[in-house]
Amino acid sequence: MGYGARLWLAGLGTAAAVGASLLGQTGAASAGMTGVRVISGAAADTGRTQAGSGYAPAARTLTLGMHGADVKALQQRLSFLHYYPGKIDGRFGWSTMEAVWAFKEVQYGKIEPPNPDIVGPLMQRQLRHPRLPRALKPHGGAWRVEVNKNIEVLVVYKRAKITLISHVSTAAYYRPDGTGWITPDGRYLAWHYIQGAVADASFGGYMYNPVFFIRYTFAIHGMPNPTSKISWDGVPLNAASHGCVRIPMDVSVIFHNYVHVSPTTGTPIYILGHNN
Length: 276
Description:
Layout: E1 8-9, H1 43-46, E2 62-63, H2 69-80, H3 94-108, E3 118-119, H4 121-128, E4 144-148, E5 153-158, E6 161-167, E7 174-175, E8 178-179, E9 186-189, E10 192-193, E11 197-200, E12 206-214, E13 218-223, E14 245-248, H5 249-255, E15 268-272
Parallel strand pairs: 4-15, 13-14
Antiparallel strand pairs: 1-11, 2-3, 4-5, 5-6, 7-8, 9-15, 10-12, 11-12, 12-13
């Protein structure tokens, strides 16, 4: 980073778990299998089609604060495609918004895609025939994490299949509190995990459920909801961190379950792209 190692202090203000949240797509097919009938788990006994395996466009444009059956259908579809690990409750909150951002970032290949805060007719067509994220390291191992700084998206592969896609915010080279911040490119390992809130003695505040990949200097960690889509707090559309990879809070409470954490055999983490 050019500013020395940051000092993460565990145990100071350590929070209770930030809420249990599990993906609702256990055994789901890969994100490329759109509109395919999937038999998995309990559904295998009844022949039911898995929720979200198909998508019927809503009759209205959806956005933050809305609720209803059409929002629930959106959540089910995003969950099926591995973008949304939150509760399927029909309420369009920040967790749904950040999943929409990730989906649009992948579809458009941009950090700030067009109309990021709405689910209109175009996105609803894209939900029926989505584009998969471009693999950064297709030969990097069947179980790996890829962080694409060019579009601010994290993808987890397991057994060479996508299991999680998340919006992220990496380092902003220019921040109001100084310049020179980067999220370093390279191949790393999921090195160490700490549950709960971890105090940041260098920059203040907390990071949540961090999975460290460069000693205690850099981590993939949760942050509370941003105050707006472009900001320096939370996980906004823009690059905003001091070097870590920020992920939405609902993703942070389950991310460590998607990787093997070990100083020597941890899941590979690839970080690639230009510095923002």
